Amino acid sequence: MGRVIAIANQKGGVGKTTTAVNLAASMAATRRKVLLIDLDPQGNATMGSGVDKYDVENTAYELLVEQKPLQDVVVTDTNGKYHLVAANGDVTAADVKLMEEFAREQRLANALKPVLDHYDFVFIDCPPSLSMLTVNAMAAADSILVPMQCEYYALEGLTALMDTIERLAEAVNPRLQIEGILRTMYDPRNRLANDVSEQLKAHFGDKVYRTVIPRNVRLAEAPSFGAPAMYYDKSSTGAKAYLSLAGELIRRAEQQKKADAAAEA
Ligand SMILES: Nc1ncnc2c1ncn2[C@@H]1O[C@H](COP(=O)(O)OP(=O)(O)O)[C@@H](O)[C@H]1O
Ligand SMILES: [Mg+2]
Questions:
Q1: Fewest C-beta atoms under 10 Å: which of 6, 84, 166, 189?
Q2: Mean pLDDT, the chain, as a whole number?
Q3: Measured in angstroms, how far is the CA atom of residue 28 from the centroid of ligand 1?
Q4: Which residue's CA is the closest to the ligand 1 atom numbered 3?
């Protein structure tokens, strides 16, 4: 069964989409079967995967509102070697329509159920807001991965986000966990970043990934070439960091499996 990980932070510009695209590609490069779901009407993860958002037949709108089966809306030939549910402006309409509908929080969870066996990892790129789309992501996910920049107000934002996640989880998905906290656009020469990073570790312990994503211009350039960084410049520090993050997620998942098995025995 695939593990479903929502990449979320209500703040914009923290590296959610960059993480979604590059983590999905890195996982696929380790021969895992990966599905990436773009839930942001901006469609940045779609474009960054080399799929033209203005020219896709189906998007998350068809999946969530028209309830077309996932295998009918998925794009299988992306530049990241993963499968993609695309997004574009239509997905804004999905957000509005879902508000009026019955069992609207569980649309994505229900859509994923029949295909979970086909994937090892499902990543969801969330919009930077607490919309019906984000609620659907939280309801469908096993866990949440939170990218954040180590800035002055980051910890406050994070505490607010954790409160929101807890409240949402109670309402729509009691088994939802925090997968991990990822430090993005990190500059080790910046003292404030180091301070915030230490506070983060003190507060959230081993939920903070060891892997740090550095600020790297290749990560910012790659989307305009419609490809994850590892296919644009595989020797870049950004591409390497996301490969290392994929390794860390895999190791954690294996440790978790062992712990679960031991607890059962
Ligand atoms: N590690 C990084 N180094 C350099 N630029 C980055 C990095 N991560 C993200 N960016 C750039 O920062 C901007 C915001 O990132 P993005 O992933 O779109 O954030 P979000 O999805 O949270 O809004 C984009 O222009 C992106 O290319
Ligand atoms: Mg984004």
A1: 189
A2: 95
A3: 21
A4: 215
What domain range includes position 53? 3-264
Rounded to 10 degrees, the C-alpha dihedral 239/241/243/247 comes to 180
Q: Which of 145, 139, 147 is nearest to 12 (CA)?
A: 147
Q: Whose CA is nearest to atom 26 of ligand 1?
A: 220
Q: Which ligand is nearest to the CA of 10?
A: 1
* Axis-axis angle for helices 154-172, 132-140 (nearest 10): 70
Gap between the Cα atoms of 156 and 87, Å rounded = 30
Domain CATH for 184: 3.40.50.300
Are 232 and 48 in contact by the 8 Å Cβ rule? The answer is no
Residue 69 identity: P
Contact 106, 67 (CB under 8 A): no
The gap from C-alpha 75 to its chain's centroid, in whole angstroms, comes to: 17
Helix, strand, coil content of the chain in percent (nearest 5):
55, 15, 30
Number of domains observed in the structure of the chain = 1
Ligand lying nearest the CA atom of residue 184: 1
Residue 86 CB-density burial (10 A; 0-12 exposed, 13-18 middle, 19+ buried):
buried
Ligand 1 pocket by C-beta < 6 Å: which residues?
A: 12-18, 44, 128, 184-185, 213, 215-216, 219-220, 238
Q: Is the pLDDT of residue 130 over 90?
A: no
Q: Which residues contact 35 (CB under 8 A, 6 or more apart)?
A: 2, 74, 82, 83, 84, 85, 115, 118, 119, 121, 122, 123
| Band of pLDDT at residue 161, cut at 50, 70 and 90 | confident
